[in-house]
Design goal:
It is a single chain. The protein is α+β, with helices and mostly antiparallel strands. Helices cover 47% and strands 10% of the residues. Strands 1, 2, 3, 4, 5, 6 and 7 form a 7-stranded antiparallel β-sheet that branches. It binds a DNA duplex through helix 6, helix 12, helix 13 and helix 15.
DNA sequence: TCCCAGGTCCTAC
DNA sequence: GTAGGACCTGGG
């Protein structure tokens, strides 16, 4: 294949393991457990990241129209000055240890379309289960990518039109469960141009959230505050977004209880919308304009320490 | 067999 | 406005 090898992040802090396994993206696969060798698919391009070098191995034929938007510097958010961002965060002990432990985690700038569908798949699911659903969708509705180099089959993420036209039983066969109607509803909105994901990045964070959640007073089925925050943070470059999931609730309850001013000792497993907004706003003003970075480091710390703790 | 998972929606107060 | 339950399914 005649694609050049590029250096992804020479001199830039970048840890593929933390970046790809922190639950922001679901299609990166580690090829070797002993080295940093990863395979991912970005806008129909099969991409290999090995050490700090990056190589494009193949492209999906029918995705040619989208390759102009294929910008690896943008995808890996190389314009983010990680050291500057991390040093701008408040110095509380829990966050300091999270940053120390997971240094090199970068927030990616993914395709908003893939991002919104992925996080619809994430609703009430664990990560292996999310990956399975997305993989099923790609195999069923995506386009085969010919690499000629790698073993195995690789598929692009489906186009909005494909999912918008899918039948219920087809989506259910991808193991989407009750999420099938969310996926199809949003796909139709995007396919018809009623939800313009591309232009959202030019909006303010709050405008983008409103647009994603209420979408001109017509509720966007399946997109609540958490999914909207994930889209803002992981695909629109809005670093102030602070998604609050079950792990973040546990984190806030155990580490930032005074800040959120929540009296009950019982850790809730979900937040009513108003409380979600209140807590997210408090954390935004605490962590500042890069609150999303704090959230990701805290998320990693919380998940992994919980796992160790509960063994 | 039960419980849980990167939530959201609907119903009943 | 908000608490409580339902929702598909795979994995522990």
């Amino acid at each position: 294949m005649g694609y050049p090898t590029e250096s992804i992040a020479k001199g830039v802090p970048f840890n593929p393991l933390f970046t790809f396994e922190c639950g922001q993206a679901f299609r990166w696969k580690r090829l070797s457990q002993t080295s940093e060798d990863w395979l991912g698919i970005i806008l129909g391009n099969l991409v290999r990241v090995k050490g700090d070098s990056l190589r494009v191995l193949g492209r999906a034929e029918q995705d040619a129209s989208r390759t102009d938007a294929f910008d690896l510097r943008k995808y890996f958010s190389l314009e983010h000055d990680l050291d500057q961002i991390l040093s701008s965060l408040p110095k509380d002990p829990f966050l300091i240890s999270a940053v120390k432990e997971y240094y090199g985690l970068r927030i990616l700038r993914q395709d908003p379309w893939e991002c919104i569908i992925s996080f619809l798949c994430s609703i009430n699911c664990n990560i292996p289960s999310i990956k399975l659903k997305i993989e099923n969708l790609c195999r069923r509705f995506g386009t085969r990518i010919e690499s000629g180099v790698m073993d195995g089959e690789y598929y692009s993420f489906p186009e909005a039109n494909s999912l918008a036209g899918a039948e219920k039983r087809e989506l259910l066969s991808c193991k989407l469960g009750f999420r099938w109607k969310y996926v199809r509803y949003v796909s139709k909105k995007v396919a018809k141009g009623e939800l313009k994901l591309g232009s959202l990045s030019r909006s303010s964070y709050h405008t983008a959230c409103d647009e994603l959640i209420s979408e001109a007073s017509d509720k966007t089925l399946g997109v609540g505050p958490k999914v909207a925050d994930c889209v803002c943070l992981f695909s629109l470059g809005m670093l102030e977004a602070f998604p609050i999931d079950i792990w973040m609730i546990r984190c806030l309850m155990s580490q930032y209880r005074d800040l959120i001013g929540f009296c009950s000792k019982k850790v809730p497993n979900q937040l009513p919308p108003r409380r979600y907004q209140k807590w997210a706003e408090i954390m935004r003003s605490h962590f500042g304009s890069s609150a999303g970075y704090a959230q990701q480091y805290l998320y990693m710390k919380m998940r992994n320490s919980w796992r160790v703790h509960s063994k």
